[in-house]
């Protein structure tokens, strides 16, 4: 019998798809549930409000896109009590299917399909939800253990975090704790690359390089003698200059103070491609995300990439990759996971009142206390610290003992640290707090959280 559900399969209506899908699930003994969807009425209504003139979805499609997940799938959430699953009976199965409507062709198409389950499937396997967890503390604990399989509590999370951080010993030599590069800095923006680079040093990197334009270099150098500043971003032989330094870097942060000069962005595109060829991990923020939104193929499926969008940047990237803007205040965790999957399982760190991190397999949230101030520069501290943690987490993942993916773990560590720094800075400075007020708190915050 020819397979009816596969990547690239097309259907003229949702009714046709649903009939085939039900028969497929019955025949293969898989149970999928709809996790995320957008109906065509809502999608067409949004289209009518924009001047882009996109065609409407055909009525028979019913949905603009649908994300199905295994009934035993689930996300994790972090809080003061560690990482835990949001629904106790779920086991985190990664089997899923993504179906998307095509405006032009008027069809539904299966864009992604994962059928590798982390649990048995078959006619004798049941998918009964766990019993409701009662208020009795001991019974609640027992039921959670029975129904959720494995959870990651605060103690285990702290152990994972501490195992990532390299110990300070007399045997180390300069550079072993991290050589971080920052691409950014132009005439208008000199503070952002400084904040990112100095944070990398304060978190624990040994060397921090800034690759900026010629006009920005003297200003950035004047901020700190600890930074190594290269005025090559707008150099006529910029790529040749970068080739001298890329082999020495452990991680490259792209975007703080980058600007949007077309020639500079063209150079950065080539640098990103060179980093991919060398396997250099990337953290992309700010105007680097503008470049990725314009040319997502630069990083799609390069899993050693972390994108750190704010709410607006996330919406633009989601629209580019999915075809619709995410619904406001509705299941941001599922949206983040979907975007990570559609970009080839790189890591997305969506900044907000709750920071959401996903590599397409795992989703965790960092919701510890921060501050109500939204002054510029805090995201640059986050990108710099992420660059350091990402290097450390990737080295730890190489030994095969990590439970969380390196991108997810590094993103969580960076969010946790910068939130604590901002909380302390706001306590001291209140409404007058600015980004530079966070830097003196990095050391003590790091020790209190991670040591």
UniProtKB/TrEMBL annotation:
The keyword NADP applies. ATP binds at residues 351-355, 370-379. Residues 157-449 form the YjeF C-terminal domain. It holds the Pfam family Carb_kinase. Its cofactor is Mg(2+). Residues 117-152 are annotated as: Disordered. InterPro entries: CARKD, Ribokinase-like, ZSWIM3_N. (6S)-NADPHX binds at residues 257, 310-316, 380. It catalyses: (6S)-NADHX + ATP = ADP + phosphate + NADH + H(+); (6S)-NADPHX + ATP = ADP + phosphate + NADPH + H(+). Its EC number is 4.2.1.93. GO terms for biological process: metabolite repair; nicotinamide nucleotide metabolic process. GO terms for molecular function: ATP binding; ATP-dependent NAD(P)H-hydrate dehydratase activity. The keyword Lyase applies. It is an enzyme of class 4 (lyase). Belongs to the NnrD/CARKD family. This is ATP-dependent (S)-NAD(P)H-hydrate dehydratase. The lineage of its organism: Eukaryota, Metazoa, Spiralia, Lophotrochozoa, Mollusca. The gene is NAXD.
